Amino acid sequence: MVSVGQISGAMGTYANTDPQVEELTCRKLGLEPDTASTQVIARDRHAEYIQTLALVGAALERFSTEIRNLQRTDVLEVEENFAKGQKGSSAMPHKRNPIRSERIGGLARVLRSYVVAALENCALWHERDISHSSVERMMLPDCSATLHFMLREMTEVVKGLGVYPDNMARNMNVYGGVVFSQRVLLALVESGISREDAYRIVQRNAHSAWNTDGGNFRANLEADAEVSGRLSPDQLADCFSTDLHQANLAVIWERLGI
Amino acid sequence: MVSVGQISGAMGTYANTDPQVEELTCRKLGLEPDTASTQVIARDRHAEYIQTLALVGAALERFSTEIRNLQRTDVLEVEENFAKGQKGSSAMPHKRNPIRSERIGGLARVLRSYVVAALENCALWHERDISHSSVERMMLPDCSATLHFMLREMTEVVKGLGVYPDNMARNMNVYGGVVFSQRVLLALVESGISREDAYRIVQRNAHSAWNTDGGNFRANLEADAEVSGRLSPDQLADCFSTDLHQANLAVIWERLGI
Amino acid sequence: MVSVGQISGAMGTYANTDPQVEELTCRKLGLEPDTASTQVIARDRHAEYIQTLALVGAALERFSTEIRNLQRTDVLEVEENFAKGQKGSSAMPHKRNPIRSERIGGLARVLRSYVVAALENCALWHERDISHSSVERMMLPDCSATLHFMLREMTEVVKGLGVYPDNMARNMNVYGGVVFSQRVLLALVESGISREDAYRIVQRNAHSAWNTDGGNFRANLEADAEVSGRLSPDQLADCFSTDLHQANLAVIWERLGI
Amino acid sequence: MVSVGQISGAMGTYANTDPQVEELTCRKLGLEPDTASTQVIARDRHAEYIQTLALVGAALERFSTEIRNLQRTDVLEVEENFAKGQKGSSAMPHKRNPIRSERIGGLARVLRSYVVAALENCALWHERDISHSSVERMMLPDCSATLHFMLREMTEVVKGLGVYPDNMARNMNVYGGVVFSQRVLLALVESGISREDAYRIVQRNAHSAWNTDGGNFRANLEADAEVSGRLSPDQLADCFSTDLHQANLAVIWERLGI
């Protein structure tokens, strides 16, 4: 909790000011009186504040890294909004870069860097020297304003995000849907063979499809007697459906309180 | 909260495992199911854990820095326990160093350093690469064991701490008790002169005592007509009492729940 | 320079040991005498050492990040060696992860984290307290061994790296070679129109190819009267050649002393 | 080396610009051409620059920490200049705080924090994303200007520093000069007894003087038969001289090139 106030005197002992002065003043300002202050409020509160900003920054970086990955030319499942009239890269007119997501990722580095300075500020000499002050004059406005900016940027990114479901489907089905291999593996195990055998069968068909022009995992499976003898066409088709991955979404929404 | 578990599959979608499996397993282990996992539990939980360790480390460093300052040859208000049979410094037999407090201060640096690595671990590619793993294999045991060691060391330091009230009194009364100057200032203001005038009077008497062999702030005040004309000997004596600084201790104890 | 030695006594004044003792001893050990030591060698030397390790770590991370990007399923221009008998991902048999490159990227985080602790170690009290010692006992072996391990890992990665030139060519020519758009732009400018006009022409043809099933930038240009009226088929073909990008390699090799 | 320039094109291949353009331009600007650039100059150069600033900052912090320690009320061997008309602490008129040295110590924390962000900037995706840019817009001016300010502050501190040799002598001779105990130890060893015996004798006399009102190490030694039987009054007096500590100053000056 960082919303605390303190009027406890030069030693933190209320020697010349009644504690009630502190309480009344804090109440008017919507603050709690600091539980045990020295001449100043202990800097672990400020450190926890900066740590929280850095943690939010890392969460935003997590989203922005995902967007950067999905916006790659070779993936292109989402795309940051191309502002009206905006040119592409100066060198390559076709290229749209996820510049806001990259910016958010960069600024998360600044936030987490400052955590160390904030933690160094805690151990003041005799519980009160002024060494923390110069740090805080840079750190507190910089970190607060930076996270505010990052939140605004991310809001813009999400609001304007182009989403390309067709590319998602295309990428999922590359090389004949190798990403569905785990489901095939489990179906084979359920059909009564050992996991080792199932793994061997799936890996064989996956490897021959993988990274091969025209490679097709699903077609390989359909042509593999060890598979067709165990899984019906319907059972195999089920393995390549995304339905299972969406079946339990409600559980997650509920936990998140959405 | 870091005590969470997760069995949500390679995509975090419970595609092949019912969420109930996760719930039952977690319940048996005394864990909460993670609200929204991917293939892994998001690393912001781990980062918050390391941040908390670093914050506790900074709190211990705050105590240890105070002890280091108070154990200085020139201050000597407290002293870390000299173990039976322990020699002093190899070069200077009389010298007892606050080695445990210095050690605690050093290790606090290690803890806060790791915060940045912990925060960098959050943004995994496609919400799951393995880059965090090598960091965690070093960071999690090192930070956990280091803070545990620091807590044990600090417990030993506090249990065995030599405390020297006579030196505290001597240091407070150096140069005739200049540390009590604020109380004199306030007493003069209460006697009816302006703060500026009071400040000028106090500073004059403090400066002539300060850093002077035999300098005596209190004697200077007693001999200063501008003071003696305003404060009675009893009033002046009150200014040099520590009673006021202890009068409100109960308020602080109560807030701390002690 | 970190290879220095010091035998200058408890104050760094050579009060009880002649400087020649230091010089002779250092010479035997292949060290330089420290220019101006206190009781200890100043910790900025150790900090510079850790900074150098972290910088090398960042260089390795740069390579490893490139490999991780190039090994993505959707790119697959290089691939870390799949050890004989090694299984793929436990969930997805076809999947080969760049686990060593991810590991190197993770460990680079550990190295750079320690830089802050190393820098905090510099300002010892009275130029010699023992607070740096606990840090160094963790930091020096951990960082040295970690970088050594990273260098070995990276050597293994490079030695065993699968390189797929066909995929490189495929990726470069996706959507009819939009990556060559800059060269087309310059050719159009050289043909006598303004950069703005050229940019508009190129962007138009790039955008209609981009992210479109069967989109073909080069075919679009060939069919565009504004282009064919200015660039001959040979000139256009030249724009899609990689020769120009390799023409000046010798300059770079020479600068690198290779 | 950070003074490099680069005009190597969007791929760093000089595909559309002859390397001579780079060389001529760099020469005019007093820069070296970067040995092997991508679209940008690799960020390890920027990281090394920030590391160097942080290392200089740590050196300044080393000086400033020494000054803060020496300016303590209980030590007072040096004192930052008290500007004409400057008031002391608002609460304690007599108190002069080393505010500039504390400020320098604080700002060193900011510099070293940024080192991690600078190192994180090195591993750009495909050797060129824009994530480093937002970091550098904050980091490069902030760090450069901060170190410049610190250097100016430290220059002012040193120029105006009050130095109190009498207090230095007083502090060295506290408790009858216990700081000279090592020299006594060595003199006893040279007189023919074992180091263990000498240590025991010195420690006995040091401990009974230490932290005792009126304690006097030197008087204790003079009254100790085990000492007086081995060291003549002149030999003992030599042990309490600072001459030995200044005898080899010229060696250090010479090494520093002063």
Structure description:
Four copies of one chain form a homotetramer. Chain A is mainly alpha-helical and 258 residues long. Chain A has three domains: 4-33, no CATH class; 44-163, Fumarase C, Chain A, domain 2, CATH 1.20.200.10; 173-246, Fumarase/aspartase (C-terminal domain) (Ribonucleotide Reductase Protein R1, domain 1). Chain A has 13 helices and four strands. The first copy, chain A, has helices at residues 19-29, 44-70, 99-120, 131-160, 165-172, 174-177, 181-190, 195-209, 217-222, 225-228, 233-239, 243-246, 249-256; strands spanning 4-5, 32-33, 78-79, 162-163. In chain A, the strands form two sheets. In chain A, strands 1-2 form a two-stranded parallel sheet. In chain A, strands 3-4 form a two-stranded antiparallel sheet. Chains in contact: A-B, A-C, A-D, B-C, B-D, C-D. Chains A and B meet through helix 2, helix 3, helix 7, helix 12 and helix 13 of A and helix 2, helix 3, helix 7, helix 12 and helix 13 of B.
Summed up, what is this model?
Chain A has 13 helices and four strands. With 258 residues, the first copy, chain A, is mainly alpha-helical. In chain A, helix 1 links the parallel strand 1 and strand 2.
What portion of residues of chain A belong to β-strands?
under 5%
Distance between the termini of chain A: 26 Å
Largest sheet of chain A: 2 strands, parallel
Q: Supply the CATH superfamily name of the largest domain in chain A.
A: Fumarase/aspartase (Central domain)
Number of domains of chain A: 3
Provide the helix percentage of chain A. Answer: 55-70%
- The string of secondary-structure elements of chain A, in order, is EHEHEHHEHHHHHHHHH
* Class by SSE composition of chain A: mainly alpha
